[in-house]
Design a protein that fits this description.
mainly alpha, globular
Length: 67
């Protein structure tokens, strides 16, 4: 979840704010950002809408590229 931490920092949000807004614990968010846990598909969709980025960006830190 390289992009999750990247976009959170770009928007200058702290983990507590994002966790409250997404209705998850700060600890869970930290685990997602550090690759210790993987969020559910529904949470990925919620994060994507919250940050207005693609799910690809949340996972890889880059937008999807056609081949």
């Amino acid at each position: 979840m390289i992009g999750l931490k990247k976009i959170r920092k770009q928007k200058n949000y702290n983990q507590q704010k994002v966790a409250i807004d997404l209705n998850i614990s700060r600890e869970s968010l930290s685990y997602y950002e550090n690759g210790k846990r993987e969020p559910s598909l529904s949470l990925l969709v919620s994060m994507s809408h919250y940050f207005n980025v693609s799910i690809d960006f949340l996972i890889t830190g880059e937008d999807f590229k056609k081949r």
